[in-house]
Amino acid sequence: MARCSICHTLIQSNDPRTACPTCTQEYHETCWQELGGCGTYGCTQVPASAKPPVSARPGQGWGDIKTCPSCSSEIASSLLICRCGVRFPYADPMTQQEFQSWVSEGNKVKFAKRLIVVLFIITLIGLVAPLTGIIAGLFAYTQRERLAGANGTFLAIGFGSAAIGATYGLVMLFLAVGM
Question: 20 to 30 A Cα–Cα from 179, which one of 4, 56, 79, 165?
Fold first, then answer.
């Protein structure tokens, strides 16, 4: 017994069957008719698929529109940017509250990234490294969810600042004790 390549069930001996004239793959007669030809990739008997007509209005999904939560103008539902220049994280419509929350979180992420870079640079100076390293490490730990984006680069910078600060602190301690 053979398996139908369309429905993947066994073709029983009493089932009406069809074999593809090109690749000889066996099918249930009803499966062959429903598909309109062969189901084997690359076979010349595969039914041609019709392409949908090109949209007369680019950016339109199903003709849906959504309201921009920033300027309240109506735009195509599939767009991720409004004519006013505002960008969206996804195509689904957003309420003004959701949009403001998303913008606010984005601003907090930008602030956290800038601060962690500044703390890292200050830590590299050396003299204040033990203090700024502790601050950077604690800040990176408390803001780890915000800093974890971008493959964890900013989180690594924060913990790296803590390690550099600890190293500078130990060196300063050894120098102070050794004198």
Answer: 165
The residue segments making up the domain with residue 84 are 59-94
Give domain status of residue 52, yes or no.
no
Q: Compare 72 and 178 and report the one with higher pLDDT.
A: 72
Does residue 54 belong to any structural domain of this protein?
Answer: no
Cα–Cα separations (whole angstroms), residue 105 to 71, 102, 108, 147: 20, 5, 5, 12
Tokens of 3: 């398996």
Copy the structure tokens of residue 97: 């509250």
Specify the pTM.
0.57
Amino acid at 121: I
- Check which CATH number belongs to the domain holding 9 and give it: 3.30.40
Name the domain count of the chain: 3
Query: Is there a single domain that holds both residue 39 and residue 70?
Result: no
d(CA 20, CA 13): 18
37-51, 103-117, 132-146: segment of lowest average pLDDT: 37-51
Query: Could you tell me if 67 and 42 lie in one domain?
Result: no
- Asked whether residue 168 falls in the same domain as residue 140, the answer is yes
Residue type for 171, please? V
